[in-house]
Amino acid sequence: MMLFKLILKNIFRARLRSLLTIVGLVIAVIAFGLLRTVVDAWYAGSDMASANRLVTRNSISLTFTLPTYYTERIRAVDGVTQISASNWFAGIYLEPKNFFPQFAVTVPVFFDLYPEFLLPPEQMQAMLRDRTGCIIGRALAESYGWKIGDKIPLQGTIYPGTWEFTVRGIFDARDDTTVTRQMYFHWDYLNERVKQSFPRAADRAGVFVVGIKDGQRAAELSAAIDNEFKNSIAETLTETEKAFQLGFVAQSEAIVGAIRIVSFVVIIIILAVVANTMAMTVRERISEYATLKALGFGPSFVVSLIFGESLCLTLLGGLLGIALSFPVIATFKSLIGTIFPVFRLSQETLWWQLGAVIFVGVLAAILPAIRSARIRIVDGLRHVA
Questions:
Q1: pTM surpassing 0.85?
Q2: Residue 92, class by beta-carbon neighbours within 10 Å (0-12 exposed, 13-18 middle, 19+ buried)?
């Protein structure tokens, strides 16, 4: 108890210095958490990937489509359970800044493939009855205040023209990893419009989402599907859904890597700040530590005093920074709009923040503690700060 009281009193003996160090810690911990959250948001799509889903696309590029008659041949592969076409739509809602993902999919098969999308049966029935209907995620509906029956006008970019969809269903997420900021509508409706305007572009799918019985056979089934179309006019590349999602992330891997490095640079900078604070503190108190030794307190007591002060100082600033991370990230999320489908402070990031705080607290105290433990009483009493 005496040790703890001494630590608390020592922390605020140089109030301005301690206060500035704590403020620096708070900013660093918030910055670290924010950067880690940005990295996590980049991988959010892959987190909801299932081992029982494959994605088949044109082996040349995603910009090249596949003929829809591939559907039956893929379905005939042993181990395949269901298959849905999926086309990226890229429509604009009022202004280009109102971005959210839109896909034309095979309904209701697509939603059977994604049991993590929780949709009431009556809403699915309403969707099946309306060819121009659409189903949107809960987060997307809340962003724009949409409800069942509302009309969503979109200006097509890949598929030109004005499109209007009626909200027939709003799905919820099964867990925190499920993204609900997207919109789905009938692939048949898209194909009908394309047939009227660009007949040669009709009956084509951007990708096929393929359901399989056993996720352990994903590699085997991927190879079987691709072999089916080997040397055809449009060869396929089939991979797991997670690999498909990570393929998008890989295109921005340099940016993600840079953000990750910067997050750790922030920790190194604050380590230097805290180390400097502890070095100055210990240098000013050398004579006091010598006096403690003269009174019978051993080097271990002095070391405990220094480590305790460093840890308490960093924990004070670190915990305050962690607490403020929540409102800061919420504010940041509101400012960036719908750029990231999931943007939240994860439990893993919280542990990273806490671990970084303890790491800084321990590392910053090592050299000052060693110096204080080794100093002789006579030299310490002669020391002038």
A1: no
A2: middle
